[in-house]
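Exercise 7.
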Amino acid sequence: MYKRTGLVGFTLTALALAMASERLSAAEVANTEHVEVVGQAAAIDQALKEQRSADSIKSVVHADGVAQLPDENVAEAAQRLPGISVERDQGEGRFVSVRGLGPDLNSVTINGTLVPAPESVRRAVALDVLPSELVQSLSVIKTLTPDMDANSLGGTVDVQSLSAFDHKGLFYTGSTEASYDKNTHQTSPKFSGAASNRFSLGDGIDNFGVAAALSWQKRDFGSDNVETGGAWDFTNGAKLNEFEQRDYDISRERAGGGLNFDYKPDDLSSYYLRTLYSRYKDTETRNSTSLEFADPQAPGELGDAEAKRKLKNREETQEIQSYVFGGERMLGLWTLSGQAGYSQSSEDSPAHIAGATFDGGDFANSGFYDKDKPRPIIGSGFYDARNFTLDKVDWEKQNTKDTEKNLRLDLARDYDLSGYASQVKFGGKVSRRNKDNDLEAWVYKDFDTLGFTDDQLNLSQFQKGNVDYRLGNYGPGISPSSIKQLIGGLNAADFYDETESRVNDFTIREDINAGYLMNTIDIDDWRFIAGLRYEGTEFEAKGTGATDGVFTPTETKRRYHHWLPGLHARYQIDKNTQVRAAWTKSVVRPTFGQLAPGFVIDDDEATFGNPDLKPLESSNLDLGIEHFMGRAGTVSAFVFYKDIKNFVYNTDLAGTGAWTNFSEAHTYANGDSAKLYGLELAYSQKFDWLPAPWNGLLVGANTTFSRSSADIEGFDSASGANRKRNISLPNQSDTVGNLMLGWENDKLSLRLSANYKSAYLFELASINDKAHDLHVDAQTFVDFSARYSLTKNLQVSFEAQNLTDESYFVYTGHRSYNGQYEEYGPTYKLGLTFTHF
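Solution. The predicted structure, written as tokens, is:
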């Protein structure tokens, strides 16, 4: 892990290197050997040109000449940008965080239309589902102009797909790849391709373009895990109540495609149709063992422990569809543009084993060692399948669907204001979003009353070999097919869990009507954009609550309005240096899980969502300077400040108001206000002014420092009074950084990169129990890639991901105490790409 100060020093001293490069005389530059290749520098240079001319503050990743992003997926490509980090799933980048704010506080658009989220409780969209062959560029827009949706606090991730007009004529590419997962010793295939061409329609020449892309990958991999979930007792030292070992075996299949059309009948008009379909299927088998101690135990202590072995086996399919039709027409000094978008995301989990539990009874003289990676101290009987008996089987199926439809119309007019070039722009947008979730659950138990013998329920009848567990001895695995065979002969209606099924079903509707007015004016070296956006929201949530087994329908309807002014300014100091400033307002709705209308009240315990939560509102201030030099060269510094109202946190309302006599009342609440501020530094340069072979050197570095502060309030049962405490915003890392060292010539391209993210608050405990807050530990991922051109059109590639075998570690209060530890291992890839353009 590299130090913060080292990365800052590197970024700042890069300015001296930039100045040195610019001192080369014109003759020296003319005599320097340049190799014009399609590679890292070309992609960075394209991105910087787009970033430089943008009205917003944004960072860009651009596809290279073969329409492939330089990383495994879109999320991992985005993490190379300043201020960007990712949440990972099984070691793979999925969700994007911007400037320390969690993925649910940002939005994702494809070709300008919002992408809804497949998961039932989230707004964040997993970006690893997008086929990279269809992506031409990815932008993270950090300051929103009034003509943009205001639904992001950190930034908007906008994906622009491939167009036939990105290439001069016929273009096609095809790739094949094999990846090797060191953890599971599995080799997996991938195939992809893209093609585009232009055609002449009517009297036009090359005025109609078609672009298509397909991608398919099947990846077999896994991980090894041990977790306590925060089950530590800190009243008398640090003692553990229970922990669990987990082994994941996963097969992940991705398939995606897109077909895009562009038509430019004349110089005054253009029309397009963008389509995208992506399918993501996970088949997961999770074996686990657990030990629950009769009394909390310190490492090395021995006592009685109850042992269990468990199985989860499920198949989950996510689909994303996006269709965008739009165009632009110039009418004299007026420009009319519009877009209609339809997107749908879904997640389908057919009937599956949500949990099969085998009870092993009590084991004497048992304990654990190692506080950050607990391992059992236990007799050999723990590893004998004959000592475990089937206790219950949780059986579930779930389907979630999220649909968003929108229609946008914009009208702009160029005019002269006292000799200064100006443009007024106004327009409106309507969007309709519906999220539906349907869960069905069954609990099979009390098998002895159904006529099953002890022998029939013994784990030895369900055993499937021994589990390959990297973190120590594990013992027998469990066969999913044997579990399914057992319960398949039972009457499912007798085991239906009505409470679990009904309270998790919901329908949430969000209708947003928006309008805006903005004006742009260029005054000498200044460019100003001022405007106002209005967003009116109609919200409706329908669900079911359960009070001691009695069901009640719930319905919440609300309307709220937001007026969102904005001001952007850009000043050109010289031809290569500019200053930017922006003051903006934005609004983000809480997640669907937080807004869920269902509730469960069981005696003196309650769990419920909160559909009355207010949206998060933020006032944002950004100020920075950018200097561009040479090819793929820039150095920049930005400061930012966000004043966030109504941030959402989990809380326990037991002992207050209607929940006075309850021991637990878990829900979500709005905080008063939170502050986020930070510094963002970035540097990139191709050293083509140096003599060979150093002229192939490419260096990039960026780092973002941020701090947040928020006050939360809750009832403290120990003191019988309300208490407050100060926290950092959940999912906010104080430091995010990247360091990249590359080298390339006309044949070979090499890149070594490191991505760092500091620790962050993951989950809050009760108001008076800071010691049980869960934090995710710092992570540094190191990757290497190499590409070699065998011919002009044929390229071989090699990639090594997670070279240092970085783990995922969640700790409880202090770094010494495990919440969760997970290992993935490195992945190695070998690929071959053929390209014609």
